[in-house]
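Let us begin with a simple case.
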Amino acid sequence: MRSLPDYDVIIVGGGMVGASLASALCVEQFRIAIVEAVSSRSDNQPSYDDRGLALSLSSQRILAGLGLWDKLCSTPIRHVHVSDRKHFGFVRLHAEMLHIPALGYVVTARELGRVLLDRLDMTDNIEFFCPATVDAVWIEPACAKVIVNIDGVTRTLKSQLVIAADGTHSRSRELLGITVQIKDYGQTAIVTNVTPEKPHCDTAYERFTESGPLALLPLSDQRYAVVFTVNTCDAGHYLQMDDYTFTNCLQRRFGRRLGRFQHIGARKSYPIKMISAREQVRDRVVILGNSAHTLHPNGAQGFNLCLRDVAGLAEILIPALSENKDVGERELLNIYLAARQKDQRHVMRFSHALATLFYNELPHKVLVRNTGMLLTDMLPIIKRSFLRQAMGLYGRQPSLVRSLAL
């Protein structure tokens, strides 16, 4: 009889994607190991900072299916206003037009992290190795081996399947020799929060500017999460500004629709690149989350796509385990990838198209994008199609999403 490895699944990376997958699998008694470099409760944990996350309706449905949604403190997005600075185009979207309670929801990464980690802390079949680093990953016919370093002590973990979910600069992906395609947009996202003079009324804004998009996402206490995109060569200048100067700069980019901005929060910055792994599955390996694809933040598609990948992978692995199958078999993993590739390609093309079309002041491109925005605003059929895409409700989706209709 074939001996079983220590775990069914080893997840490298305990951030939002890795923890979401563990939450999906743990209820089915998967034996799970999570390897994470930074303590999940540390203020330095990059996955669980104060960034605002715009969650689509598909993501809300997935989190509800995992029994997590009711534990989250979220702010609904009932209205969206998209505009092009210094030009005539705009799009207005309203939840009541579609007879739905919200177009999406906003939570902070820290809040989502709290709920995910509370769930994992209550689960007996998950073992954390943290803080720990991965020194090597070996794939053998019968199992995968992950060599981890825990406070200077080396330990070998064995599993049927290894999930590389350790982010854009994935160490485990690198150790496996999986290369990436990189598109550097020459932009940096400066993330902060601000309180406007006027109430936000559950309205999100995305304003395209000559240096990139400026997004405002409604939070509790009438605050906004801000994603301010600038040219990378100018990022240091904006980060070194005092709060008063930076707030005024933000005000000029956005305008006075919400009155004066005040009470600016701390600023963090993230370089903007599109990164795509050349392989997402191998024997006993899945590359997941930002390790598989990192997107431009315009349209807020990145984490929502990752969460649909999580749901799609869980949909394949859970019945396989219940049937006592080897969850690391390549044939099984190929089924997952085939089901998810169309959605991934569609979202990546959409995100890249927005970045190239709106970060361009050539007259013909200005005319095309602004005309397109006006047509979208005026024609319900186009608006409906756009919303289905933004909400992650088009094409074949994982079962946790399919019950949603629009």
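The second case is a distinct protein. As before, the sequence precedes its structure tokens.
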Amino acid sequence: MSTPAFPVHPVLLVDDDKDLLRNYVYTLRADGITNVITCEDGAGVDALMKEHEFDAVLLDLNMPRLSGRDVLPRIVQRHPDLPVIVVTGVDEVDTAVKCMRAGAFDYMVKPVKEEHLLTGLRRALDVRDVRRENALLTQHLLSTELTQPDAFSDIVTSDAGMRSLFQYIEAIAGTPQPILVTGETGVGKELIARAIHQSSGRTGEFIPVNIAGLDDNVFSDTLFGHVKGAFTGAMDVRKGLIERAEGGTLFLDEIGDLNSMSQVKLLRLVQEREYFALGSDSAKRTNARIVVATNRDLQTLQRSGDFREDLYFRLRSHHVNAPPLRERRGDLPRLLDHFLARSATEMKKKKPTPPPELVTLLSTYSFPGNIRELEAMCYDAVSTHKSGVLSMSTFRDAISREQGSVPELPALPVPSPDFLSPDQPLPSIRQAERLLIEEALRRTDGNQTMASQLLGITRQTLNRHLKNMRAQEEDQP
């Protein structure tokens, strides 16, 4: 498998010294910057700019036909977000100041040390990424349409908040920076990560790895591979998953469980884009996109010393938080239909018809296991379904096992009634009863069966109370 060029768009090297250009190319390629275009004449820059999109420019100041002093303002005017590093043999403060005022990103004096050249160019590439990300983010957030809706086809939703999340993902998907995906267990973090990969335009594979419980040796061997003889039993070379993810996305799930030694290695991978196979002294470079996920609070882990601060801030260059199902109750009918259909297909059964009360029942439940829990309920219900309307008993039993009764009131913020304020008189029992019944009917969309269950009474008792309430209204003048 050929290694994709890095960066995505080439770096332009402009200098009339052919030997120096050749040395630049060797130095950059040795550091993993392989996508390079050279130009020996300042007059040829305009044509190259029309033909290619560049990520950075290394520009010699003194050239015979068209000098870098003339080329620099042209580039800055036409491509203001493109970082230009001026390289010259003139070590004069006045010249450096003029170049920086003209829009140069950096100024280097020949002969340039390799370390200085690489550090400056890497910094320029990082700035170019940030500028591109900001432009994309602005463009997508101002738009109401998704440019790649197919990338999100596996995520069943009609929720407005999820749509905003998709727009944000489209804005950041094309950048090489790491992405942190957070959310409770079962919210679909891997589906989010796959959507990021599919939106990115990357041609490599999506490689998921669950790193929970891996010790440092297993983590290193799994991700980075090993050379022959690296340890007892290492009879052959083994390529790591990071190599399989070249040109694609490496998804690390349960990142909050990563041990401290492995965190150091991951930091190097994220920060320097390089790694060492076990038993090897030669660093390898990668351009795989890193996406990580966790259901733990990394800020809390970082404050307690269980997660490196520098790694935390590196990983959350972009942050996607997947909302829990209780915040997407409007998606319940769509998700229910989706999982019933899928489970029926897998079990070679006819898709059952759910009773209308089922969505109401589910809407009163907080779903601590989120979408994965709803999926398990549907599979369980379909597995025992015979014919006709789907029974609600399996759903009731599942909820009962989790919370002890069916159903509890949902954990929603409800303002305290005025009559509970210390400066207000208490209502009568009859008035409090009416308030409770009205609230239960509101929460269940008028479904009396579900309202009676919320109140802990029978349907007949609720009917009797409702008749009494109507009679009282009729008696009032």
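DSSP finds 19 helices and 14 strands in the chain. The two ends are 86 Å apart (CA to CA).
Keep these points in mind for the review questions at the end of the chapter.
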